Amino acid sequence: MIMGELDSTVPDYVSTQSLALDWIVGNGGLPLSRIVDVTSDEGCGKSTFGDHVMAELQRRGGHAYLWDTENARDARYQKKIGVARVRAGQIDAHTLEDGFETMIDLVAWHNANDPGRPGVIVWDTPAGTPTRAESDAEKKDEQFGPAKLIRSNLRKLNQHLQQGHWLLFVCNQTYMGRTASGLACKVAYGGGGIPYYSSIRLTLSHPSKFWRGAADKEMGLPPIGQTV
User: Fold this and answer.
1) What are residue 204's DSSP bridge partners?
2) What is the mean pLDDT of residues 126-144?
3) Distance (Å, whole) CA 25 – CA 47
4) Dihedral Cα 43, 145, 147, 172, nearest 10 deg
5) Residue 168: enclosing H or E segment and its boundaries?
């Protein structure tokens, strides 16, 4: 085939609901038919970020699905962000294999039956998703690596994403690891497959928190927000 016969153009972009983030990533937001990887330490706003993207796509008439392996979502908080939970889907999968099978079938079905409508799947998080072997009590002493499973399944899922207007939004958590030379460094779960297939890779950090007033901080009251 010649390049002119292949359509690799990003079909559309979805706003992050943050003017600053939209400006940073360019084109007014995150690209559809692609994979976005957001990594950070715990409590930096990955889940909130994903909820905002879900709310924005729903506002535009699109689909929104959540694969919450951490079981850490607060329904009231999601409603305040703008997620219409009665129109959002929950992927009920407890292993990597089951989750990827569901996501691949889901995107393939929507591409075939509702090709023009955009959608997003928020996966939160790879760190909390075991493999089938890890969930098997009889094999608990064996060593299993999910990195190869993630890489091979992302290869299949990416083919379906390219054929439609769907976005896979991955909330990935970092932890302290070590380089080959023994130096400490921040490492994300899932190996190199997720960043390899991601068109947008963002790292969040929260250098400071803020209170209503200095007295609130001195009294030990919880902060009202944080700088991200």
Assistant:
1) 40
2) 74
3) 18
4) 0
5) strand 166-178
pTM greater than 0.85 (yes/no) = yes
Give the pLDDT confidence score for residue 9 in this predicted structure.
Answer: 86
Give CA–CA dist 166/175, Å, rounded: 29
CA pair distance 93, 90, nearest whole angstrom: 9
Residue 203 amino acid letter: T
**CA–CA gap between residue 85 and residue 123 (Å, rounded):** 16
Distance CA 56, CA 35 (A): 17
Helix (H) or strand (E) holding 133: helix 132-135
Count the Cβ atoms, other than its own, within 10 Å of residue 191.
Answer: 17
In the structure encoding, which two tokens stand for residue 128, read together?
């909390």
Q: What single letter denotes the amino acid at residue 20?
A: A
pLDDT at 142 over 60: no
